[in-house]
Specification:
By secondary structure, this protein is α+β, with helices and mostly antiparallel strands. It folds into 2 domains: about 1-45, no CATH class; about 45-225, Alpha-Beta Complex (tt1808, chain A). The chain contains 6 helices and 13 strands. Strands 3-5-8-9-10-11 form a 6-stranded mixed β-sheet, with helices on both faces. Strand 6 and strand 7 form a beta hairpin. It is globular, with a radius of gyration of 18 Å.
Length: about 230
């Protein structure tokens, strides 16, 4: 039986991204699966701890993007990452194409290419998130990768350009290397204390490094005609 005869996706199926995407579009809206390294992974039902941590981290990302013009946040969005990779990460932050970002938006409103930062909340998916997904994200150009490990209550980051771990500082705050001012209070994140998470973010957004990022993005912004303000 060829891939073209497949009527539904099953974990362990091997196929190209084009084959996966064609079959996935025929599946019910509630169905979720990812293609990682050419292998299909059907997503298991998510538990409460995953949902609450995801919601808190998403709120932080949304507030960061709201204060950083040119940065977009996405939640459970399909990303056309590479020829054998179509993940649906829990969250991403990307610099929009018109501000010089490395991904683009297709005519069908898909994200094509690697967002600058991807975040996953890991429990039952821990092995996949830390190995197979990490490998794909590194191979296709994601710069920074965050994994919230629920059982250990740990937030680990990876600089995928150098394959180096990025850990919270001594004060318990994770400071993004890719998006200055994105500060994550780790204990508050896992305790779902949104006010403490936002207080920490506010401190990050008040730093000169975040102001510098905003200025840099504004300088790189292209007008509808394709030029940046500094070139006009």
């Amino acid at each position: 039986m060829s891939v073209l005869d497949v009527l539904e996706l099953q974990s362990g199926d091997r196929m190209t991204r084009e084959e996966f995407h064609r079959i996935y579009e025929r599946m019910p809206a509630s169905f979720r699966a990812e293609l990682i390294g050419g292998i299909v992974y059907v997503t298991s039902p998510l538990r409460r701890r995953h949902g609450t941590c995801h919601a808190t981290l998403a709120a932080l990302f949304v507030n960061y993007a709201a204060r950083t013009p040119g940065v977009e946040v996405g939640d459970n969005t399909t990303i056309l990452l590479g020829e054998d990779a179509e993940p649906q990460p829990d969250l991403y932050l990307r610099v929009l194409p018109e501000f010089g970002g490395q991904s683009r938006t297709s005519e069908d409103d898909d994200v094509v290419g690697a967002p600058e930062l991807i975040a996953e909340v890991a429990h039952s998916s821990r092995a996949i998130d830390l190995h197979a997904k990490k490998g794909d994200y590194a191979r296709y150009g994601v710069i920074e990768y965050l994994v919230a490990l629920l059982p250990e209550r740990r937030l680990v980051g990876f600089d995928l350009r150098t394959d180096r771990d990025c850990l919270p500082d001594a004060d318990g705050i994770y400071r993004s290397r890719t998006f200055p001012g994105l500060w994550v209070h780790v204990e508050a994140l896992f305790d779902n204390e949104t006010s403490r998470v936002m207080d920490s973010l506010d401190r990050g957004l008040a730093t000169p490094s975040h102001a510098g990022l905003v200025s840099s993005l504004q300088a790189r912004r292209r007008t509808p005609g394709g030029t940046s303000p500094s070139s006009t």
